[in-house]
Design goal:
The complex is a heterodimer of chains A (318) and B (197).
Chain A (H helix, E strand, L loop, with lengths): L2 H7 L9 H17 L8 H9 L18 H4 L11 H13 L11 E10 L12 E8 L17 H9 L5 H11 L10 H15 L5 H12 L4 E3 L4 E2 L5 E7 L7 E7 L6 E8 L3 E4 L5 E6 L4 E13 L7
Antiparallel strand pairs in A: 1-2, 1-10, 3-5, 4-5, 5-6, 6-7, 7-10, 8-9
Chain B lengths: L7 H10 L4 H20 L1 H17 L12 H13 L2 H14 L3 H4 L13 H12 L2 H13 L3 H8 L3 H18 L11 H5 L2
Helix pairs in contact in B: 2-3, 2-4, 3-4, 4-9, 5-7, 7-10, 8-10, 9-10
The chains are: A alpha+beta (318), B mainly alpha (197).
Chain lengths: 318, 197
């Protein structure tokens, strides 16, 4: 028998998925289309801002997720986070992270990543479902992510570690280098400053393992960025823990904002969430309803990195 | 041939302005990408790699070459890269099939243990030969055999010249024939591949 016929017979009974099985993937894609990208979005300001441009009513100044008053109860840290200004807070964070140990990653290692994702309306059957927990192993020196010719610009963890390790002190230069690592497509509608701020935040989101002094420089560059704000109180993250929330200011037309959450004790990055800053209904650009509405304070998306750890082998747990 | 208003390139172009349009591409191609991933890596990777394929495609849609009406090669190329990052797991399963006749990948979609089918000897031999191929040759072989790609579509998917596809496929097929006990020199151009599409 012909070899190609034999080849075709191999695993020929692989099933075609039914529609329901493909629904979560479609939702992930729609989530990316509607609010940026599900995970590693380079365009989220544009899409987020565009989504809210149709109906501008009032500017929301608070988020419903605030946790009034239980900051002081934490009490144990000698100097808690100073949430009065993003600059002060991020300078404080820079100092703290610079003291953390360097994990000295080696080629051939893997990053164990446990995430919890939430998506508002991901399932009609379970609108208030808990965050979906998943585990993955990411190759530290992934050749796929270091292949510059495959059309995907997602950097490997090694490239991000090296970027942090080699950052200069000058915030302007840091911004430029981050923007080179996370290039935005053309016609994003963002100013150069916004694109650079986004690249800084993308680096914060993606980099693990972290080079401590490099991360401190990244925080200082964020501290120097007038486009970055801090929520003036601790928020509850989707896992129910207190967190510091910093966010890029998207202007008064945005209906939601992407909050980058830091641990209030260690200032380490924990994940991000998108929060509706006022009541709004999702609409397509022709004005027709997309069939979903959101209340102010609602978390419309989150991805928390609940565990990150360096391991020696694919599939190994820390 | 796709009709102009419905071809993938137009959908991708429109999605630059209306990102949610990209879901149409998903509706057209996700099922076959899913099955292809399933066939290469098994049930546990299919959902995630399919979803990731479309997310990566979505992020990179501004760079799509709109002269290419069908997005299949592009999507398979992205999926192939993601599959490639599980290379060791793929090879491990193929070797297990070669050694024991039981295919861990096929088992992943069989619902009951009593459905277990032991592969015939020729399939075991093929699995061993596929496991031994360089990753690039394996991609070409499986795109042609399992996704019915033409040489040109393979070239588009992998970003290599058609001649490279031809030589990789010929090299891979020689090894398949050798594994099957046939005369490895009898490989001609694969007509199924050149006439398809």
């Amino acid at each position: 028998m012909d070899d190609m016929t034999k080849m075709r017979e191999l695993r020929a009974d692989a099933p075609t998925p039914d529609r329901t099985r493909l629904v979560p993937g479609r939702q992930r894609l729609l989530g990316a289309a509607q609010q940026g990208s599900a995970r590693r979005m380079r365009l989220d300001w544009r899409v987020t801002a565009a989504g809210g441009a149709a109906t501008v009513v009032t500017i929301a100044v608070t988020v419903a997720l605030l946790v009034g008053g239980d900051g002081p109860e934490r009490g144990v840290q000698p100097a808690g986070p100073d949430l009065r200004s993003a600059t002060v807070l991020l300078e404080q964070a820079a100092e703290a992270v610079s003291q953390q140990p360097d994990l000295h990653p080696r080629d051939g290692q893997w990053v164990y990543l446990k995430t919890a994702q939430c998506r508002s309306g991901a399932s009609d059957a379970e609108p208030d479902a808990k965050p979906e927990v998943s585990e993955e192993w990411v190759q530290y020196d992934s050749p796929v992510r270091e292949d510059d010719k495959d059309g995907d610009t997602e950097p490997s963890q090694r490239r991000l570690y090296r970027l942090l390790a080699s950052l200069p002190d000058d915030p302007a230069e840091i911004r430029k280098q981050a923007a080179d690592m996370f290039p935005m497509g053309k016609d994003t509608g963002l100013t150069r400053e916004q694109a650079e701020t986004f690249a800084l935040l993308a680096t914060l989101d993606e980099a693990y393992p972290v080079h401590p002094q490099g991360m401190a420089k990244l925080y200082r560059a964020l501290a120097a960025d007038p486009g970055v704000e801090v929520v003036p109180h601790l928020v509850k993250d989707p896992m129910g823990h207190d967190a510091i929330a910093i966010y890029p200011d998207l202007g008064s037309e945005a209906v939601q904002r992407r909050e980058y959450l830091l641990d209030p004790d260690t200032f380490q990055y924990r994940g991000n969430q998108s929060v509706a800053v006022r009541d709004y209904e999702e609409k397509y650009e022709d004005g027709s309803s997309a069939g979903r509405s959101h209340k102010k304070g609602e978390v419309t998306y989150c991805e928390m990195k609940t565990t990150q750890s360096l391991v020696d082998r694919d599939g190994e747990k820390p | 041939m796709g009709e102009p208003p419905t071809d993938d390139a137009l959908v991708i172009q429109e999605s630059l302005e209306r990102p949610e349009m990209f879901a149409r591409l998903y509706d057209r191609h996700a099922a076959e990408i899913h099955r292809y991933v399933m066939r290469r890596l098994g049930d546990s990777h299919a959902d995630d790699i399919t979803a990731q394929t479309f997310l990566i495609a979505f992020r990179n849609r501004a760079r799509y070459d709109v002269a290419r009406a069908s997005a299949r090669p592009w999507l398979y190329g992205i999926a192939g890269n993601l599959i490639g990052s599980h290379r060791r797991s793929e090879v491990r399963a193929l070797r297990a099939l070669a050694r024991t006749g039981v295919d861990p990948v096929a088992e992943s979609w069989s619902e009951r243990a009593d459905e277990r089918v032991t592969a015939e000897a020729s399939q075991q031999a093929l699995a061993g030969a596929i496991a031994a191929l360089p990753g690039k040759d394996r991609h070409v072989l499986l795109l042609v055999a399992w996704a019915d790609f033409t040489y040109q579509e393979c070239a588009d998917a992998l970003g290599v010249p058609v001649g490279t596809v031809r030589s990789r496929l010929n090299r891979a097929r020689r090894k398949m024939r050798k594994a099957l006990g046939a005369d490895p020199t009898l490989v001609s151009d694969y007509n199924g591949a050149v006439t398809h599409g």
